[in-house]
């Protein structure tokens, strides 16, 4: 199933998810480093990364919803998609709550509740990311209908990936 929202020939959702995943995971790593090093700067950076990660997660979710709505009803992809998307909404809610709990603290140092919320969100993210991989890699959601190992690029005309790989035209 080809993605309904594309940029430069590829699904926008798949291009955007790297930002919230990277920001939110790194925020938790910075929390741990900050606690171990007793350095408030890591907590402040984590606070800002969570805000940016949640915002980018919402943007990525809009494009994920566009692709989800194009999946035919009654398919396994539709069932996996609702688990993937619903799970990621929970992830964003958990990180938002963690961010809000930190908002009133000096230097945005996470207390136990904020850290537990963020850690729970990261654990859930592992599962939702696997479901996203299942959608794309196994079920072909967001992949061009003419995809294949020797598919040519859609960015330019006249350049063939097949020729670069030694295949006959």
UniProtKB/TrEMBL annotation:
Residues spanning the membrane: 16-36, 48-70, 82-100, 112-131
Top-level taxon of origin: Bacteria
Keywords: Membrane, Transmembrane, Transmembrane helix
Domain DUF2231: 9-144
Protein name (database record): DUF2231 domain-containing protein
Protein source organism: Promicromonospora umidemergens
């Amino acid at each position: 199933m080809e993605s309904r929202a594309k940029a430069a020939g590829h699904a926008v959702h798949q291009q955007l998810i790297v930002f919230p995943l990277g920001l939110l995971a790194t925020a938790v790593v910075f929390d741990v480093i900050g606690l171990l090093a007793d350095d408030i700067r890591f907590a402040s950076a984590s606070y800002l990364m969570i805000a940016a990660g949640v915002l980018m997660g919402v943007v990525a979710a809009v494009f994920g919803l566009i692709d989800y709505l194009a999946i035919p009803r009654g398919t396994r992809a539709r069932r996996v998609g609702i688990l993937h998307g619903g799970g990621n909404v929970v992830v964003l809610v958990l990180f938002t709550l963690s961010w809000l709990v930190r908002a009133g603290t000096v230097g945005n140092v996470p207390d136990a509740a904020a850290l537990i919320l963020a850690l729970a969100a990261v654990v859930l993210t592992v599962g939702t990311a696997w479901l996203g991989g299942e959608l794309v890699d196994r079920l072909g959601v967001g992949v061009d209908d003419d995809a294949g190992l020797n598919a040519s690029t859609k960015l330019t005309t006249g350049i063939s990936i097949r020729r670069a790989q030694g295949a006959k035209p």
